[in-house]
């Protein structure tokens, strides 16, 4: 069995692309053959996830239940003009293409078919799923509920939120105090107010039926401070994708 499925780890230093919103940041992790240590640094990534390598003799990987298999999207290394980009300048989202889906799940007495279809381009939660090296390429096995939304472009403003999630354009915080003192980014409070740009179709209730969301496009909302996934659009606009349950109130 050990010869069939192993862990794909490089015992030397390896470079990883971690995503801050839609912008990749460069990191380096040193791997010791006897253990893996995690160093917290503003310039280095803080975690490493080992991918399970599937032996070449296995040609099919069928997810079970409500799980899906996503082929991880590769980070663009060059600009349209052919200029080699540093990791800090790469702007592809954390996502990929769905290449296989399970048979769905059962809620109550109702069987629910997968709402994510093969071929869909999806964005998923940052630490979701299990990485798998299959057919020589990086994949991710995750639950359908870990999908944040569908994204057919490379700009998060076009995201179609999944199920009970909403896409919110974050309201910019004041850059000055009431006395006119300029605030640094570290001194600013994390935003908790924004405008709903898009809303999902709703989550499923215990009866297996979709429940309409309590917010809609255009609503200004107050949400939990550290909820959801933060993203940055191509024009620098800040967005957050979160579940409707993380929204505290509608403002008017």
Automatic annotation (TrEMBL):
One Pfam family named in its UniProt record: Cpn10
Classification via CDD domains: cpn10 (cd00320)
GO CC aspect terms: chloroplast; mitochondrion
GO molecular function, one term: unfolded protein binding
Keyword field contains Repeat: no
Keyword terms of this UniProt record: Chaperone
InterPro entries (alphabetical): Chaperonin_GroES, Chaperonin_GroES_sf, Chaprnonin_Cpn10_CS, Cpn20, GroES-like_sf
HAMAP family: CH10
Family, similarity comment: Belongs to the GroES chaperonin family.
Protein name per UniProt: 20 kDa chaperonin, chloroplastic
Organism field: Ceratodon purpureus (Fire moss)
């Amino acid at each position: 069995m050990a010869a069939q499925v192993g862990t794909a780890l490089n015992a030397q230093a390896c470079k990883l692309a971690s995503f801050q919103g839609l912008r990749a940041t460069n990191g380096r992790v040193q791997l010791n053959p006897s253990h893996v240590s995690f160093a917290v640094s503003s310039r280095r990534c803080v975690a490493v996830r080992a991918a399970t390598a599937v032996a070449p003799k296995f040609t099919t990987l069928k997810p079970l239940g409500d799980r899906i298999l996503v082929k991880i999207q590769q980070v663009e290394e060059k600009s349209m003009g052919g200029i080699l980009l540093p990791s800090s300048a790469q702007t592809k989202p954390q996502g990929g293409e769905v290449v296989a889906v399970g048979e769905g799940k059962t809620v109550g007495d109702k069987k629910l078919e997968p709402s994510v279809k093969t071929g869909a381009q999806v964005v998923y939660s940052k630490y979701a799923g299990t990485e798998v090296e299959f057919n020589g390429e990086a994949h991710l096995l995750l639950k359908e509920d870990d999908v944040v939304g569908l994204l057919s472009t490379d700009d998060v403003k076009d995201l179609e939120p999944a199920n009970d999630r909403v896409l919110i354009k974050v309201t910019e915080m004041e850059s000055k105090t009431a006395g006119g003192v300029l605030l640094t980014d570290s001194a600013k409070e994390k935003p908790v107010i924004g405008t709903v740009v898009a809303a999902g179709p709703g989550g499923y209730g215990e009866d297996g039926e979709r429940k309409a969301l309590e917010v809609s496009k255009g609503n200004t909302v107050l949400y939990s401070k550290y909820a959801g996934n933060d993203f940055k659009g191509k024009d620098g606009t800040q967005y957050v994708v979160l579940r409707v349950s993380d929204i505290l109130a509608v403002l008017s």
